[in-house]
């Protein structure tokens, strides 16, 4: 039986079908990409808003200190006093029990010591506190002799590997080592800050990097990031992690780490041509001035003595010669971000540092005879991003930063030709097993949950804004005005009209929204009726990160407990930060209501649990978001 060729009509039909399928697929991918970018904007806007609030808390602390608040000075004196002390005595009185089966370190460290340490951390083992303190003490001694700006050279047979933010993601660091090789004389590394916070293995990352730096001091270089600061650590998880893993000696470890962070170098220069620093630059960046800074005496709390709105790039060139200019440049180096347009303006999104444009990049590079700026600080969906005519390269090494599947990680290989080669990766195996639709749906769900939390946290302000458009108190406004009012209150820069179908459900009709019904739909919390009328419930929810930060600051012995009086001071500090009045009776009622065991003190875990978020059913929203997800992915998760 012979083969019959398809007719012209059949071929034309098949071609049309293929073109239709191709067109449909391109539209499908475009819609997913639009959802992915919108999700990304939500995560990033909420993250930067939190950083801005953290700086404001720090400013509130100094406001009270400058007013000679005796109670406040007493609380902070024991934790933050800057007294030079010999750290090597810390570990000598700590005995390692015979029952300890974890890794043992000997000093000077050897490569075999580090290999054993890495293998132990792979298997979730913990290094004994004696060895932790001894390792940190040796690191402190090494860092004190390093310059502010490290000079590194390549050779014909050597490439330098540059890693960005790791943020406690040990899996990413181990994957980099697997793909690229362990640090050594032949495989030098620069780690560009933000080793800690957010992830669950920050202390393990630090111990591995410090150990490699001790063995290879000329080939492993660590720059300071904005998260290498004890004030930031109180909010973003590192303090909590250390105290949880080292309950008995955690306080000593944190004190020593505070000093180590202050001694981390601020930048690295490769072959006198490539500048590597964590955040960025400004129009007054002066590497000679930065090289002379007393870096161990500069931190986030010190930089708050001058406002970002009075930084050097607003005052003028003469500002560079003053001491406060050094503080401003320190803030720029750790907190700044590039922008597309020319110029240099305060970074009001983060609350510190600046935004600088391509003209500033070109001027600073020319002035210092440089050809490339490598920085980190910003999570990128692909793990890296070029900007400013490829003169600025952002590298971010923590994959799945906001949520599993939210972004790739990456690192750079830089050879003698100084042409950066970027290597991307995805650390989570579960992510690689998801389809694109499942991955986007998972991250979108998590982002929308975080956004609904923000909306509920600003309920009172939102209602006031809505009522301005509803003078007759009908409870109904247009969707357009709902979007304008929401942005006016939250300042997140999000496309609210695009998001309305996912945030607003059955409360809409013919382009209008019943905002009272909408808030009942949000219903993110199980309200405590006894406290709701005081306004403390919403206040606590909106500022729960600040409260936990302040709580940990006041809990000077890190016991996890504070007295009713200390609890009252917590709220007084918060009310000063918010410039609002909270009555002593309301605070006392709140303390009594969450003292579940009635022992006269407040446990921080009990405190946060009392206001635990309760996610309610959003059937219509979840149906549209989770379409295509497998059942095991249906539980809501919070962003990192």
Automatic annotation (TrEMBL):
Protein source organism: Pygocentrus nattereri (Red-bellied piranha)
Claim: Isomerase is one of the keywords in the record: no
Enzyme class: hydrolase
UniProt xrefs under InterPro entries: Calcineurin-like_PHP, EF-hand-dom_pair, EF_Hand_1_Ca_BS, EF_hand_dom, Metallo-depent_PP-like, PPP_dom, PPP_phosphatase, Ser/Thr-Pase_EF-hand_contain
A Pfam family reported for this protein in Swiss-Prot or TrEMBL: EF-hand_7
BP GO annotations: detection of stimulus involved in sensory perception; negative regulation of MAPK cascade
PANTHER family referenced in this protein's UniProt entry, alphabetically: SERINE/THREONINE-PROTEIN PHOSPHATASE 5-RELATED (PTHR45668), SERINE_THREONINE-PROTEIN PHOSPHATASE WITH EF-HANDS 2 (PTHR45668:SF2)
Domain EF-hand: 542-577, 582-617
Top-level lineage group: Eukaryota
Molecular functions per Gene Ontology: calcium ion binding; Hsp90 protein binding; iron ion binding; manganese ion binding; protein serine/threonine phosphatase activity
Necessary cofactors: Mn(2+); Mg(2+)
Designated name of the protein: Serine/threonine-protein phosphatase with EF-hands
Keyword Calcium: yes
Reaction it catalyzes: O-phospho-L-seryl-[protein] + H2O = L-seryl-[protein] + phosphate; O-phospho-L-threonyl-[protein] + H2O = L-threonyl-[protein] + phosphate
Keywords, comma-separated and alphabetical: Calcium, Hydrolase, Magnesium, Manganese, Metal-binding, Protein phosphatase, Repeat
Entry EC number(s): 3.1.3.16
Protein family according to the UniProt entry: Belongs to the PPP phosphatase family.
